[in-house]
Amino acid sequence: MEKIELKNIKNVLLLGATGGIGNAILKHLLAENLSLNIYTLSRSQIEHPRVHNFIASTINEASLSEFIGTVSNNKFELIINTIGYLENELGGPEKSLRDVSEEKLIEYFRTNAILTPLLAKAVRNNLSPDGFAFVALSAMVGSIGENELGGWYGYRASKSALNAFLKNIALEWGRTNKHSLVLAIHPGTTQTRLSEKFNSHVAHKVHSPAEAAVNICNVIFSVPFSMTGNFLNWDGRVIDW
Ligand SMILES: NC(=O)c1ccc[n+]([C@@H]2O[C@H](COP(=O)([O-])OP(=O)(O)OC[C@H]3O[C@@H](n4cnc5c(N)ncnc54)[C@H](OP(=O)(O)O)[C@@H]3O)[C@@H](O)[C@H]2O)c1
Fold it and tell me: Is 1 contained in some domain?
């Protein structure tokens, strides 16, 4: 087996399924594979007969561990983290250093970066021995090599940190399992709650959540295990770290 096949997947673990892209991935996977089960952890209810939803007021190490405890009789072929934020009650992305604050930087890192290694730690004994993909949605602006504009300190750096975590996870799991695929994927600019205030400024195409979900799944199901530890664009291009 060279890669993950959607038809062979039995169990999916999805974080961020209440979000624009996460919910579109959930619907796409359920429609394309009529026998898979999806296990979600979220802050609000997700109603679907094939979705096993665990609700927690906060997504953190404790609730991740509790969630995995409730699903630990399963092995997962696909684990996806789509949780992320750009703007909340603390404010939006920083235009310059004058907008940077300790509280906001910590919140960017807490939500966009550290949940992924905590998820990997929690799920590490429940990865399918037949092969699995572990994916987190990153962002092009997290590429240090392709940063030509500056600004957005917290969001950029938290996605760069996420990429660094994913590379490390890929190396650790790749040593013992040649059928592991760990990827950071940039979904492309997509019309969601996260991006709605910023999309009017972009010159390139803005995807619908359904298009983004198809693109992301096409990448996951076309890339061989040998590509583990990469940062990929929605069209499969390798993005510079
Ligand atoms: N949209 C784009 O153009 C774009 C571009 C590049 C990268 N991305 C990345 O793609 C991913 C999905 O984004 P999206 O566009 O689908 O955004 P979205 O519609 O705003 O969804 C964000 C998801 O993250 C969850 N979330 C946010 N803050 C959280 C927190 N503190 N604790 C727990 N969950 C939290 C939300 O849960 P609640 O429903 O509970 O709030 C929701 O499920 C993100 O990682 C984002 O950075 C998006």
Answer: no
In this structure, the residue with its CA closest to atom 25 of ligand 1 is 83
**pLDDT, tens digit, for every residue of 64-106?**
999 999 999 999 999 999 999 999 999 999 999 999 999 999 9
1 CA to middle of ligand 1, Å? 32
51-55 sheet: strands from edge to edge: 51-55, 37-42, 11-15, 78-81, 132-137, 180-185, 230-232
Answer for the pair 189, 207: CB distance below 8 angstroms, yes or no: yes
Question: Quick check: CB of 81 below 6 Å from ligand 1?
Answer: no
Is this model's pTM higher than 0.90 or not? yes
Best of 46, 85, 103, 232 for a ligand 1 pocket test (most atoms within 8 Å of beta carbon): 85
CATH of the domain at 43: 3.40.50.720
